[in-house]
Amino acid sequence: MNDITFAQSYISELEAETNATRKCLERIPVELFSWKPHPKSMELGYLALLVAEIPLWITHMIYNDYIDYATFEHLKPTTTQELVTHFDENVKGARKALMSVENGQLDAKFDLKGNGQVMFTSTKRQSLESTINHMVHHRGQLTVYMRLNDIAVPSIYGPSADDRNF
């Protein structure tokens, strides 16, 4: 599959996950951003922000040669709406970046760095291929946090226990 066809297909996959992800993010109250289920777990606000920013990774992977997770600038949302707007902007940016892909572009090297040190190297295509799965994984984690806080879990791939209309 050439890079243009891959990118177009990837846009469809991203779009398929966008609405359910937004529905989850819309339900995360800012008052619970610092909550976490275990001392080793991420805070709810950080996890929600991670889910909201993963589409931004797509943009960075296409336009840049690396992401340094230690210096990557994160939004510091103070409201749920800021979080959701950030997600929507990141999806829009990812879609635009994917639409700009040219053949051969995704064979370029991409590095994940930590404080400038290379932690992982792959092609841009290989890094992109796992990104939506990464978002879906953390969205699933987010739904567990939601359940533990008695936040209604929206329908994702079918009705949830909170969203049954049958």
TrEMBL record:
Binding of a divalent metal cation, residues: 134, 138
InterPro entries documented for this protein: DinB (IPR007837), DinB/YfiT-like (IPR034660)
Chain ranges passing through the membrane: none
GO molecular function, one term: metal ion binding
Iron listed as a keyword: no
Domain of life assignment: Bacteria
Keywords for the protein's UniProt record, in alphabetical order: Metal-binding
Family according to the record: Belongs to the DinB family.
Protein name: Damage-inducible protein DinB
Species assigned in the record: Mucilaginibacter aquatilis
